Amino acid sequence: MNKTIQKLADQCRTEYHNGYGGFTEQFDEEKFAKLIVRECIQFCGHPDSIRVKSMKSHFGIDDEQAN
Question: Is residue 65 a part of any domain in this protein?
Fold first, then answer.
């Protein structure tokens, strides 16, 4: 897997105690998708460009989440 994608995926995993003496991993698919979109936005140009604004709107990513 691409190192960048792996890094993003790692940010979306949460490990917690499952109550049976072990740990369970949870993966946040929505967070992963938004992180990928943010990565793409960074390659599209200036943050105020029409293309970037359109992508943010299309994928429901606001300015607070884009950081």
Answer: no
Burial of residue 29, with CB atoms counted within 10 A of its CB: 0-12 exposed, 13-18 middle, 19 or more buried: exposed
Number of domains in the chain: 1
Q: Which residues span the domain enclosing 44?
A: 3-59
Q: How confident is the model at residue 1 (pLDDT cuts 50, 70, 90)?
A: confident
Secondary structure (3-state) at 61: coil
The model scores a pTM over 0.85: no
Domain-located, residue 55 = yes
Extended beta strands in 2-66, E state: 13-17, 23-27
Query: How confident is the model over 50-61, as a mean pLDDT?
Result: 87
